[in-house]
Amino acid sequence: MNIEYSDQKEFAKEELERLFLSVDWSSGHFPDKLVIAMRNYKAVYSAWDGDKLVGLISAMDDGIMNAYVHYLLVDPEYHREGIGKELVGMVKEYYKDYMRICVIAYDTAIKFYEHCGFEISEGASPMCITTLWT
Questions:
Q1: What is the CATH number of domain 3-115?
Q2: What integer pLDDT is reported at residue 59 of this predicted model?
Q3: How many CB atoms lie within 10 A of CB 1?
Q4: What are the backbone angles phi and psi of residue 69, rounded to the nearest 5°?
Q5: What is d(CA 37, CA 69) in angstroms, rounded to the nearest whole number?
Q6: What does the radius of gyration of the chain's CA atoms come to, in whole angstroms?
Q7: pLDDT at residue 19, rounded to an integer
Q8: Minimal CA–CA distance to 71: which of 88, 86, 56, 49?
Q9: CA distance 128 to 134
Q10: d(CA 111, CA 67)
């Protein structure tokens, strides 16, 4: 397997839809919005197997101190190949001069993020307001 990495921000909506739905993320039902979102993120890195999008990470920041990883997803067919860790490494390198890189990790991903160097913040809990678009 020859995975190539890119920092492009332009994606076909079908590529994003397929990848997001491959991991059952509801965002995949809004591919037109995902295309725009990717253009707006400060940092976007993607993993490709030929012309197939198999992984993606995106982050936003305040310009000087704090960065936030929003999306990190890898096609299940490519799990355990080091793709997620490589994508996280790219974001860590991009934000190496920042004070903090944050991520909201679901319980199933905590061990992965710890393996990548993240720590659970004591006394902090992630909070969200989620609305569904029609």
A1: 3.40.630.30
A2: 96
A3: 8
A4: -80, 125
A5: 13
A6: 15
A7: 97
A8: 56
A9: 19
A10: 20
pTM across the whole model: 0.89
- Tally the C-alpha atoms within 13 A of residue 12's C-alpha that lie toward its C-beta: 6
pLDDT along the chain (134 residues), means of 10: 93 97 94 96 96 96 94 95 95 94 83 82 76 62
CA-CA distance, 91 to 94, in Å (whole number)?
Answer: 5
Q: Please tell me the distance from the alpha carbon of residue 84 to that of residue 74, in angstroms, as a whole number.
A: 6
Query: What pLDDT does 1 receive?
Result: 73
Q: Is residue 52 a contact partner of residue 14, using CB atoms and an 8 Å limit?
A: no
List residues bridging with 68 in a β-sheet. 60, 102
